[in-house]
Amino acid sequence: MSERSSNQSSSWSPQQGGSQSGPQSGSQAAANQYAARSVPAAKTKAEAPLTWRPSQRAMRLLTAAVCTLVPAIVFGAWWCVPMAAAPLLLLAANGGTHPRRIRAEVDVPERRCFEGEVLTATIRLAADAAAGWTRQEYLPPRSRDDHEFGAGPAPSGVRLEALELTGALITVKLLVPRWGRWSLGAVAIDVYDTAGMRVAALHADLGEVEAFPVPSPDDTVLVPQRFPDRFGEHSARTPGEGVEFIAVRPYVFGDRQRRINWPATTRRRELQVNTFEAERATEAVVIIDALSDLPQPPVTADLRPRSTLDIAVRGAAGLAQAYLKAHDRIGVVTLSGRVQWLTPGSGNAHLYRIAQTVMDLRKDFTYETGGLNRLPTRVLPRGALIYVFSPLLDPAVVEAVRDLADRGHPLVVIDVLAHEPHPATGGKPDHLDALALRVWRLDRRAVRFVLGELGVPVVTWDGLEPLDLALAPLLQMPVAGRAR
Amino acid sequence: MSGQYTGADGGGGSLIGSRMFWAGYGAVLAAMGSGVPFWDWPPRISDVVVLVLNVAVFGFLAQPYLGRPVVTAMRAYRLAVVHRNTLLVGLFCVLVAVKEPPAWAAGVDAVLLAGYLLLLDVVHIPAATLRRLLSPALLLGVAVLIGGSTALVSLPASDAAYRPILAACAAGAALAAAVATGFGRGSGRRVGSRGTGTGTADRQDHQNSDRAPR
Q1: Fold of A283-476
Q2: What architecture (CATH level 2) is domain A23-50+99-212?
Q3: Closest Cα partner for A370 from A329, A400, A393?
Q4: ipTM for the predicted complex
């Protein structure tokens, strides 16, 4: 973390990079900058004892030779002798040589990237003698490290873009379309001897990658009604040492002379001093609901995978970026099977800590009861503004929101489920589908009613438009919590 | 196994990259193996049925397998798919051995089998290595050997007097091939190999190369 802390100037988002042309260019630069400073080039060596076995060519030739010579010699089928000529000659013509040791050196220069970026891995082969040729195949992580996800496609969606061969160097280009900590898969390399009669297989594991979410564009920073006692950039409605003028008051001993308001002093014939608003930093906590994750319909403008959890994490990253840019403190709590948290902090490095906290959300299959009651006090500071990104599908989230509201926290719920479900039959909706949809709508309306009764504002955000637009109605006044 | 596979180009867009070509080659092998050229006309229904069956099976088995020689499950079907080319070679030899053909047909069978084996090499082996492995001298040797052995079996007296000689020649050739295969790779198993060092000087490019061992 010390290395990351020293990297305060590194930018996170493409928006900070100043380029609006595409979401990847700036983020790639930021990730490269971050990776170059903090992560050494990752190299792994795959050196296992080689087992040479007959190749398919050798098996073909041997089969042909045996299947012709046995009838010819044993059963007197003399007409098989000409057929034995070619395989015998091909078997005997080339004496194949092969190396005794082969080393595959995997080099993935960047183990961290942003989602949607292409990683390049190289595999350098070295041997102690000549070999014939190699053939290689990319093995996606589906059937390997991500086996817990079953036979379906891995949620990482790591996709092979190119597998190129240049001399003894194999270059693998992989697209990481979704945030998370994923396995990159492996490359199986078949090395043949110089005659193509024997083959040995190497397995070069490409390791793991951390793909950071691309933050959604957001510049809105909501503030609570009451600020904690920390210096910051927000004007609090209490007298202090800020720059926003509040009123004038009579001079008391100890006031600074430069604060004297001379026109008011002249009018009132006694010394009057200006009073200003205090400047305070706010504290916010983002709660990400990972208890339910529903895929969302893809859009042409954004080729990244979309689900409620993806939208929530990208929105949380955007929000965290906006708060950290304003030098505020922000923390994160993830509600999945296991409650994870990160205490509020500030600085650019904190953004990476937040991203790494949510990195393994999709691999968490545990379930622990207790919810937010198990959180330490410092994770949810008193008066901290709390954002809840949730599709509002799990009753546990509603209970958590109720619990937080009872504690007096100012709350904002961001509903990331912006699309209604479609009938799974794929055909024309019948009356049962319509009835199910109606029940679903009533259920969601009931959830929103409960939250409204708690005094918690709920905004809907589909992840496509900037988060600013969704939060704009809440900018009218500071968000207030319930009186305790 | 899924995933992209690189190595030999598998014939690319040329004739040997066509599935129809290989299906046709399999059909020719099936026809020769079933003895169609020396059928009695009109053929019997059973012969036709066997021929159709052979054509279907050989047409499938003749397709070159381009993936890695690994199976995802030890099922007979999976094994047959991965080793289909080897299976075709064995089936063709057995089919020919079952029924005695004329001498010229034995020569044609030998040419077809050699052609199939060489064409598979063209598909599987990179071009640079292929030029070294299948040199013109070797191809000429294959042609001479097939021609010579066919001529030998087509001699009038081969029914009786030359049979022991043919069998002896075949056994000798097999022994020679075994000896050459077994002892011809001594250079690859030299004693005192330098092993795989850590320095770059120790590294040797063996990718698609045919350098002599140092």
Answers
A1: Rossmann fold (3.40.50)
A2: Sandwich (2.60)
A3: A400
A4: 0.78
